[in-house]
User: What shape does this take?
Amino acid sequence: MLIDLKIKNYALIEKLEMRPSPVLNIITGETGAGKSIMLGAIGLLLGNRADTKLLFKQDEKCVIEGVFDISSYNLQELFAKEDLDFDDQCILRREISPSGKSRAFVNDTPVTLDVIRKIGENLMDIHSQHDTLQLGDTSYQLNILDIYAGNTASMGNTTFDIYAGNLSYLRNYNESYRQFKKLESDYRKLTDQLAQAQKEHDYHAFLLNELVEAGLQAKEQEELEEELKQLENAEDIKLKLTQAVQSLTESEFNITSALKDTVHLIGQLAQFSSKYEELRTRTESCMIELNDVSAELEDAERSTEADPQRTEEVQERLNLIYTLQRKHQVLTIAELLEIQRELEDKVGSVLNLDNAIASTEKAMKQAEKDVLEKAATLSERRRASFETFQQELYVLVADLGMPNARIVIQHSEVAPTATGTDDINILFSANKGAQPQTLIKAASGGEFSRLMLSIKYMLADKTALPTIVFDEIDTGISGEVAVKVGKMMQQMAQKHQIIAISHLPQIAAQGNSHYFVYKEDTAERTISRVRKLDEEERVNEIAHMIAGANPSANAYQSAKELLSL
Assistant: This one.
């Protein structure tokens, strides 16, 4: 329930504060005085987008604040989910700076627009003339029937779950439907992947087989390239190795003989000083190392032979490696081996996809079965409510001046959608003998208004909304019907706080509190103001609504009679 509303620096409103009654509040005023501006401000409070063009003073920020009593609306879980402290009184605030920056607060905690919208949707339902036009939309009609049938409780954009604690029939179905559609999408993607994989399978298998048959080894290329160099230069290598061995061991002045003599001579000096013994040892080590080198050179020389057959084998092997590298546009065997692993995954993925498709298809069929079962339950509950909905709505509209009205719910089954397997269309005729037609074709503006009010009245007890706002829902009605509309609002106000903007005196007289919106011209500009009327002021205002600017004594008497009702 809205306890207090403050609007500052918004459109034509410089500063406004109102503390509405917990029951029926009426707002009246001349056309253009600012009644709808107040609704625009409340819309911002509930999360609508802001526009700096609507600032009263362009150099000051706009502030809209609402204080709500939420003690009995079980919103603790929502507050906890959004990481907000819960209190019995909730303060929603919007601030729009001259630069265009918008900020939202819940109990002085900064929040996103999405959060303030989620909370606001649980506090107020604003019914505008646009909602009346929505009544002609079949999806809106289906939503109404779901509320009436107890499948879910929803008004406007707000949804309340009233079945089994937190789980409504519609929400239960919708969750299953979303799961089914996800599995259906996954299945379609997998089958598409399989079709594409099968197109590429033969080519990938050919490439993989080519690499597997090549039997590539990690360091093979470097080793083969080195071996080929030796094979191609075998004669030159053998000649140089022979010359090296001769220089070390076979020539007249070979190094090994010279070292042997040096070791012997230094050894004769060892008796004179330890340093000579050390030198002899070092020289002897050199001689031993040189003999090892000479032996290895001899082995290398003996093993080095020109081998045309091996040369050809190495060249062919390297040519195969180079061909594969060019084909796959890489430079190393390591990269070829990585490509081989990738091809193994792609070729193997066809089998993996078959398994994934089978598993997903099984889950999808089970989900579809679940969807159809829940859709059947949902549809059965809807159809069970048709007769009582038609009858109750007829009684209400008949009392509002349409005694010959006929209301028929046209129903057909469709493939599962997010709302079930039912296609609903409310058919209507206001006149005797007329065939019921769709609301768009059959209902006038006044009939639409009366239908919508009757439906809101029927649904009021089935929703958890504390505050309902009607923006000129009385369009197109007058006389005794208007009196009945006012009484209907009074009855709704016994369980809900009602704020009604009206231009009819019959409805204005029904209010527990009456607010008057008016324009005031200053030296600089026009300002919208609002004040709560006392009893005498209410008589004057209703008399003006009856007779215009200069009401007669009869108009004043009629105003008093309306108030006395």
In short: The first helix runs from residue 35 to 45.
